[in-house]
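step 3/5: co-fold with aspartic acid
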Amino acid sequence: MATRVSPLARSACIAFLRQQTIRTVKPKRLQNANIRTFRSSTQRYKQELQSYKDSDRYHGQYPQRTHLCGDLRADNEGHHVVLNGWVQSPRTMSQDLIFIPLRDASGTTQLVFRSGSPELRAEIQRLTPESVVCAEGIVMKRPDGMSNKQQSTGAIEVELKKIYCLNPASSSLPFWPSQPATTLPNEEVRLRYRYLDLRRPELQKNIRLRSVVINTVRQHLIDNGFTEIETPTLFKSTPEGAREFIVPTRKPGAFYALPQSPQQHKQMLMAAGFDRYFQIARCFRDEDLRADRQPEFTQIDLEMSFITAKELQEIVQGFVTAIWKKALNVELDASHFPHMTYHEAMLNYGSDKPDVRFDMKIKNITNYLSDVIENDSALDCLVVKQGSKLTGSELKNMQKALELVDEKDFAFVKINENNINSWPSKCGRLKHSNQIGQVEADMNNKMDIQVGDLVLVHKRESYLNGGNTLMGRVRLHLANLLQEKGLLKIDPNTYKFLWIESFPLFSPDEQNIRTWQATHHPFTAPFDEDIPLLTTDPAKVRGQHYDLVLNGMEIGGGSIRIHSPVMQRFIFDHVLQLEKHEYQRFDHLLDALSAGCPPHGGIALGFDRLMSILCNTSSIRDVIAFPKAAGGKDLVVNSPSEVSPDQLKEYYLQVVDKDKV
Ligand code: ASP
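step 4/5: write tokens
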């Protein structure tokens, strides 16, 4: 098998071969069995280099490009042009008429062979799809009735005079970027050959828009007095929330960690006197990958000193408005950014990131049927207009999908003439209520329940925590179903932003190691008026945290921070019950807070998700040049991969079997 040599290395070799005869070089210090010595083998090398100086590939200077493929219009008629790009499959109509679409980043132009030159014809016939060429020709208006209205260059074609094949593409490519989307191979194959997939106009558009958007943000922040500052990628392991990636060093037992976010550094920058910081920050979290998560991702990260939440939110609204104008030509103003508390969001929508593009609010009906509801419970009710049109199997599938099959406290009923005044009696445990027959009229009136509707009820714990309630999940599932059936219409160009605020500062610890965990991160400040509750009832303490939500997706989150070292230590120590050695890992931050740190706050917006919304893609992978596939794999370079035993040794590491840990 031929050794792979890069073109650059090949040309260096050629230059070298031309200049001198190669002798074996064997300096004394290289005479070691493990050292690979350069040996003369002129004949063999010459043979290998044949494939470099081959006849399919043009060697030498080629004419300079005059236009981009997508730029040519009828006005260019008669111009002599030079184009560069990738050829798509030629369409041979006859010996003397061949069409060759030529694509570059700006679009596609049709080249046409009409000259009858046998040499040129032969060159065209040798071209494999996706070969890179330089084409010279004359712009011609297409004959009457032949223009292509779908294509920006559809009024013209370029009559080919000369073509230089700068680099032929292999004839066994796994796919062609120009082939119809429905015939493309699955995503795994496309991720493996990402450089080919990225040639597709859809992905080109997304990645280019990404650059435009990031520049819009950068410009807006710079114009508003922000300084762009890079913080370290080699950071330290601190128990901030998510699982970290660890980086070994050549010092036994000493590790860096990759940052989950620049949180601690940006707070230290406030202590350092950089009033307004921002960074387009790469962050790393070693979490189980969901469809819209990547182990490395990008955030628009900012922090400001001496500000209120409102001032910070105005800055964010400013650049979001600029992005929407630039990317979508949509005008936003302050009225597009309403506020809602966490409690309202959870009660009315069963979610801390409510999708308010449709109404379907959840109602609390505890008071109507209180005799069958325990003190610490609440009764959620959702009314789906025309919901009786959903079939039994659709509702069963919903129960399966949401794991509700054995949920005793969940029930639903289709409202008809017979049950409209007694429907709770059809709802599981509610049938034991003494109120049945007395409360329906009022409920029907208040919730506009009519024949043909679907009514769903769920008894839940009254203490609200976490990201959603069961009825919130039901609401989203049903909204999707209703949309599929054409019973609910959501305009795809609707953008409903929401600031969600007043989150509980602490939530019950998911790992059950301690009582409380920070709902977001441990640096969020409590509301001043809730400080006394820190010692008596931490569940009731509200944090000065805010999330920016768009169409039911969280696109950013931040907070006013704790700037007092006393408060920060109290929360680490007494509320979060971190062990001393755990909170000592934050000493650098506590020291910075003690060194004259201004009051401050900040936010980070998930840039990949934002781009995915702007590009209307179903996955964030479509807006990232080289995303990871399922399981965190990079299929292009095939990582993560093993390292050699020597490398392990250098880092004092040993790989052991999973079950021996
Ligand atoms: N560092 C936080 C995060 O990455 C955002 C912030 O509070 O500014 O989620």
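step 5/5: annotate
The radius of gyration is 32 Å.
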